Amino acid sequence: MHGLFALCLLAAAMKPLSLAAEERSPVDLPILFDTRERIARPDLSGLVRLRFLTTVDFPPFNFIDQTGKLAGFHVDLVREICRELALTEKCQIQAVTFPELEKALTDGNGEAVAAGIAVSTPLRERFAFSRPFMRLPARFAVGKKTPPPGETAASLAGRKVGVVAASAHEAMLKAFFPKIEAQPFPDRAALLAALKDGKVDAVFGDGMQLAFWTSGADASGCCRLFDGPYLSEKFLGEGMTIMLRKEDTALTGAIDHALLALSRSGRLQEIYLRYFPVNLYGG
Questions:
Q1: Cis peptide before 60 (omega within 30 of 0)
Q2: Exposed end of the chain (fewer CB within 10 Å): N or C?
Q3: What is the sign of the dihedral through the CA atoms of 162, 138, 125 and 109?
Q4: Is there a common fold for 11-135+238-275 and 138-235?
Q5: Burial class, 47, CB count within 10 angstroms (exposed 0-12 / middle 13-18 / buried 19+)
Q6: How much is the pTM?
Q7: Which residues of the chain have pLDDT under 70?
Q8: Per-domain residue ranges of the chain
Q9: Pairing relation of β-strands 202-206 and 223-230?
Q10: Dihedral over Cα of 266, 272, 273, 274: its sign
C-alpha cells in the first residue's frame, strides 16, 4: 500500500479527527473473517520479545504526532494485538525508513512489519503475511453542483469519468464499468483539479485518498463520495496485512488469531473510527 500511493495528510490533523470519530455512527467494515472460523493461538511462551517495525511517513497509518510520539492506525493495532496475545510487556514498536523494512526483518532486527507493504507474488516467496485486516476500496467522487441524475454508477454511463492514467484504478474502471467514458489524467493532482473545475462528471480512484480530499480544505466543499465501495483483489490487492519471516509460522498464526478476535469484539472497528474522518465504505 505504502508503495502504491502517498497520502498527503498533516499529522497535526490527526488529533481532532480522532476525537470526532467518537461521535460518529458505527461503520460496517467489510467482513474479512468468517464468524464461524476458529484460529488457534499458538504457544508463544518462548518468545523473548516481539518487535514491530513501521515507518513515520504514512498517515493516518503511521506518523509522528503533535507530542513527537509514533502514532497511527498501525500503532494502535499493534498495541491491541499485543494485548490480545498477552504480550504487552514483550512488545516494542520501532520506526525505520520504508526501504529498510525488508532488510531489517530479514536480518532479525524485528519480528513483524506493520507498514502497509503491498502483498505481491515475489514478496510471498520470501515472507509470510497475516490475514488482511483492512481492504481499501475504490470509490467515485462527483461535484456537488452538477451531480449525476441517479445515485449509482449506472447513472454515469456515457459520461466522462477521470482516472489516473495507467493505474490499477483505470484498469478496474474499464473492466467494471465499460459504458463509462474513462478520461485519463497524468497524476492525481490533475485528476482532482479537473473534478473541482467541472471538467469531468466524476473521478474514480483510491477510496481513502478521495475520502480525505473531499472532506479536506483543498476540495473547498466542491465534491462528495459517490456510490460504492468497490473491492477487487485482482485490481487492488489483498489488503492491509502484517509481514513476517516465513519461518515464524507460530507468530503468524498468533497474529491471525489476534486479528480474528479484534474483528469479532469490535476493537478493530474502534481503531478505524479513530483515524478515518469519512466512512470509506458508505456515503
A1: yes
A2: C
A3: positive
A4: yes
A5: middle
A6: 0.83
A7: 1-35, 277, 283
A8: 11-135+238-275, 138-235
A9: unpaired
A10: positive
* Residue located via cell numbers 481532532: 16
Contact partners, residue 212, CB within 8 Å, separation at least 6: 7, 9, 277, 278
**pLDDT of 31:** 60
Domain 11-135+238-275 coded CATH 3.40.190.10: yes
What is the full DSSP assignment across the chain? -TTT------GGGHHHHHHHHTTSPP------S-TT--------TT---EEEEE-SEETTTEEE-TTS-EESHHHHHHHHHHHHTT-GGGEEEEE--GGGHHHHHHTTS-SEE-S-PPP-HHHHHHEEEPPPSB-PPEEEEEESSS--SSSSGGGGTTSEEEEETTSHHHHHHHHH-TTSEEEEESSHHHHHHHHHTTSSSEEEEEHHHHHHHHTSGGGTT-EEEEEEEE--HHHH-S-B--EEETT-HHHHHHHHHHHHHHHHHTHHHHHHHHH-SS-TT--
User: Which fold, 138-235?
Assistant: D-Maltodextrin-Binding Protein; domain 2 (3.40.190)
* pLDDT reported for residue 41: 82
For residue 111, CA distances in Å to 127, 185, 192, 233 come to 11, 40, 39, 26
